[in-house]
């Protein structure tokens, strides 16, 4: 019998590097649309960032830019622990 929580496990630390780069670049380029949060599996966070961008007429996209830069400056291990295991939602 398989473990029902097996599917809830985050990606392995080996996948963190490629995920970090993808999330960082999309956060910088299209962060206002919340794409980087959707890539991390945080649909609620992605929708919130999209709503903020719409309500602020685009100024809210600065949040995505900042998050993208933060993602790229973290080490792979720190990114994995913070955003894939702990699922930190803001910055």
Brief overview, please?
With 91 residues, the protein is mainly alpha-helical. It has helices spanning 16-30, 35-39, 43-55, 61-73, 76-85.
Number of domains: 1
How would a crystallographer describe the biggest sheet?
none
Give the terminus-to-terminus CA distance: 39 Å
What share of residues is helical? 55-70%
Share of residues in strands: under 5%
Q: Which structural class matches the secondary elements?
A: mainly alpha
How would you sum up the global shape? elongated
Q: How much is the radius of gyration in Å?
A: 14 Å
Element string (H = helix, E = strand): HHHHH
**Average pLDDT:** 88
Number of helices: 5
Oligomer: single chain
Poorly predicted segments: none
Secondary structure tally: strands = 0
Characteristics:
mainly alpha; elongated; 91 residues
Question: How would you describe this structure to a colleague?
Answer:
By secondary structure, the chain is an all-alpha fold. It has helices spanning 16-30, 35-39, 43-55, 61-73, 76-85. Helix 1 packs antiparallel against helix 4. The longest helix has 15 residues, at 16-30. The chain starts with 15 loop residues before the first helix and ends in a 6-residue tail after the last helix.
Would you spell out the secondary-structure blueprint of this structure?
Blueprint: H1 16-30, H2 35-39, H3 43-55, H4 61-73, H5 76-85
Helix pairs in contact: 1-4
